Amino acid sequence: MPHLRAVLTLCAALIATPAAAQSMPVSVALDWTPNTNHIGLFVAEAKGFYEEAGLDVEILPYSDTSAAVLVANNIADFGVLGSIGLFTQRTAGADLVATYALVQTETGRLVFRADRDDIQTPRDLDGKIYAGFGSGWETAMIGTIIRHDGGEGAFETVTLGTSAYEALANGAVDFTLEVYTWEGVKAERDGPAQRAFRYANYGVPDQHTNFLGTTGAYLAEHPDTARAFISTSRRGYAYAVEYPEEAADILVAANADTLLDREFVRASLQAMIDGHYLRAEDGTIGTIDPGKMEAMGGFLFEAGLLKDGSGATVGEKPDFSTYYTNDLLGMEP
Q: Sorting pLDDT into bands at 50, 70 and 90, what band is 333?
């Protein structure tokens, strides 16, 4: 009988802890060094939400290879995908599918120093110097903004990458683009003061700036794991909105090697909350808006920025409804 009791006790223990025995590995690649766009992932990991869902999630360190390339080549299961990259790379043949909208509205904006009295509306940017990042999207978008305000859309571009912000601060260039919830918050804290034009106010469609995404092949092969990962990540982002102090601490602690400024992280997160980026005013979180996807896809198509795998501009507008899915979100967190 003692032997039988031991066997029954062991069986009960195994039944009571299925997640530990059956955790499914999931890897997710970041699009940049850890920041508040990624905060829900780190919260879900630190709070044990992934473990509760039977997942063993590995957040891969940022590398020079884009998250979209890592995902499309099956090196990472999921990744943080930029909106423009999703549209262009998917059209060119990459197997990419957006599965979660990290932000509900555009976080980018066109910025210039607040002391520039000669810049009052977008048409004043004609003939000025733009510090850019090397994409055709920038040219099409800025030209649209200027022309929408009655200008010609003619400006000079110097490609500087992240050095654009230093160049703007010291007056070497006239304007650039930034992510408000990161670089914009930094400028508000450290100066110099800026003014900005929001893209969607001047003829450019509003968009989800970035997504969590995977491949169609992964969704077909691992539907339950994909659903568990996305719905649980959503829970992590919802928690970050409700408990920002704790969430900021988690992001900083999880990335001690990057020396994140805790107060800056907290300010960035507050900007995301106050601006209804992570969670919309109506409570929407993670959902991809079909109207926004169609509008931005159409904008890129009309601008001639969507090319096929051979590099030729596509002549027929793609079916953008296949570029994303909301089926993995689960119940409201």
A: low
Determine the CATH number of domain 23-105+208-323.
3.40.190.10
Residue type, 131: A
Residue 207 has pLDDT above 70, yes or no: yes
Residue 97, number of CB atoms within 10 A of its CB: 22
Closest listed residue to residue 303, CA positions, set 129, 132, 142, 94: 142
**Amino acid identity for residue 235 in this structure:** R
| Homologous superfamily (CATH) for 108-202 | Periplasmic binding protein-like II (3.40.190.10)
CA distances to 52, 66, 90, 111, 319 from 309, rounded to whole Å, are 41, 18, 9, 34, 16
Read off the pLDDT band of 61 (50, 70, 90).
Answer: confident
Q: Render pLDDT for 257-269 as a digit per residue (tens, 0 to 9).
A: 999 999 999 999 9
Cα–Cα distances in angstroms (integers) from residue 215 to residues 26, 59, 83, 164, 204, in the given order: 13, 17, 15, 33, 28
- Count of beta carbons in the 10 Å neighbourhood of residue 196: 17
End-to-end distance of the chain based on CA atoms, in angstroms? 47
Nearest residue to 240 (alpha-carbon basis) of 27, 38, 30 = 38
Global confidence as pTM: 0.92
Residues of the chain with CATH 3.40.190.10: 23-105+208-323, 108-202
Q: Crossing angle for the helix pair 244-254 and 262-274, nearest 10 degrees?
A: 130
What are the structure tokens assigned to 206, written together? 């509003």
Nearest to 38 by CA among 158, 244, 211, 197: 211
| Nearest by Cα to 178 from 245, 259, 256, 108 | 108
Place of tokens 């003692």: 2
